[in-house]
Amino acid sequence: MRYDVVIAGGGHNGLVAAAYLARAGKRVLLLERQERVGGLAASAAAFPGVDARLSRYSYLVSLLPSAIVADLGLRIELRRRTVSAYAPVGDTGLLIDRDDPAGTAASFARIGSPDREAWHRFYAMTGRVAQRVAPTLLQPLVDRAAMRALVDDEAAWQALFERPVGEALTEHFASDLVRGIVATDALIGTFADPDRDLLANRCFLYHVIGDGTGDWKVPVGGMGAVSDALAAAAQAAGAEIRTGCEVRDVDPSGEVTFVDTEGVEHAVTGGHVLVNMPPRNGQEGCQLKVNMVLSRLPRLKDPDVDPRTAFVGTFRINESATQLAAAHEQAARGQIPDLPPSEVYCHSLTDGSILGPDLRASGVHTLTLFGTHMPAALFADPAATAVALARTLASVNSVLAEPIEDCLLRAPSGQVCLEAKTPVDLDREAGLPGGHIFHGDLRWPWAEDDHGPWGVETEHTRVLVCGASARRGGGVSGIPGHNAAMAVLGVQR
């Protein structure tokens, strides 16, 4: 059977491409290995008998352009978090609330940091860069010189693109804690040293330019609601979506071989084939993800901050610059850090719809933890996961007034509602070689060695990349899916 376009992989990027192409009148077939679409942008009831739909892998939205949402008429709601961060320090902490400048200033003073104005200046700079760079992500690639001219701010260019971002943070901020809070955006899913490695700059850039604002938003209904809306848009436009179909081979001629749930092999042909799967020789990931359901939020050491305020934003755990550097040094030596840095947020404080009514009424909440400096190599020994989890929970407990374990909900079976996901788990469960959440190290958002103008082309004319491994890929963005669709349609704008 022949289609205009066959899409291998039904993650969110494949769904975006399918929706755009079907709306343009193309005959589209999308094939997904799992029984549901969405890939890592999905929600699930992780604990039997507990009515909580967790975003087990991807969990927040920053890079998804509002232009894609508008183009496809997506029926989703993304809620902005006013609290940027809370970082415990001894018996107090730093609370950064964009809607409460006076309270934020008092919080900087309370921890003895002089960095309030520096914080505003630094993020004003990244905001200007975001406004100028973000629109280019949905356009044909420009070269490095053109991007530099577009940024049109030499100080920002040097800080974010030319020199290790850690150097800029040292120059901007006096506080070790504040430098670390900012630096963590350079380490999401990326094993790098912000003081030496420009890979950290690339990661940082993608985490501060989302949709021209850098805002991290909560998807109402969980991450699965985003994928469901994309699938609905694609199918409404006429795309055919087949789940339980594992792609086995993509031939440069456009022939795609796949196996269905009954083990029967099929072959179809596409005028173009869009590959929304990670490369088989991908690089290793670097993260520990811990999903929890709590019977109640834990008590804080800080008497001036309500746990509901502290956990609604990003709750920073042992993420000073010194602590990040120490953890990186240990991980680079092949050791699980003694005091793992991590960050936590509570989805259900912003969006209670992911909980059943009985759980909401009883004060139950979800908690998502993302641990940095946890490269895949640390988990070669299966016993390492338990060690990493134990040290991470101990790190969490070091900044709380009570052990987090005392707050964990138990399922009807007696199971504690806690699960840990390492890069090895992502490799095994989600088919990500090396467990890299970005399908490989992030690249600069300009043309370097690309085969074509959109950063999705390959050496084979009929085969394009539409997933996170495309240039300007990574994160829940839909950008590679959009750009692959534009390449198929011959858009030159």
Question: Which strand-content bin applies to the residues?
Answer: 15-25%
**Can you give the helix content as a percent range?**
25-40%
CATH class of the largest domain: Alpha Beta
Number of strands: 18
Could you tell me the mean pLDDT?
A: 96
Q: How many independent structural domains? A: 3
Question: Count of DSSP helices?
Answer: 17
Overall 3D form: globular
CATH architectural group of the largest domain: 2-Layer Sandwich
Radius of gyration: 22 Å
Sketch the major β-sheet: 7 strands, mixed
Structural class: alpha/beta
Give the distance, in angstroms, between the N- and C-terminal Cα atoms.
32 Å
Query: How is the CATH topology of the largest domain named?
Result: Guanine Nucleotide Dissociation Inhibitor, domain 2
Low-pLDDT regions: none
What can you tell me about this protein's structure?
This protein has 493 residues and is of the alpha/beta class. It has three domains: 2-41 and 66-75 and 219-279 and 438-489, FAD/NAD(P)-binding domain, CATH 3.50.50; 82-113 and 284-435, Guanine Nucleotide Dissociation Inhibitor, domain 2 (2-Layer Sandwich); 126-215, no CATH class. 33% of the residues lie in helices and 19% in strands. It has 17 helices and 18 strands. Strands 1, 2, 9, 10, 11, 12 and 18 form a seven-stranded mixed beta sheet that branches. Strands 7-6-14-15-16-13-17 form a seven-stranded mixed beta sheet. Helix 8 (176-183) crosses helix 12. The radius of gyration is 22 Å and the shape is globular. It starts with a strand and ends with a helix.
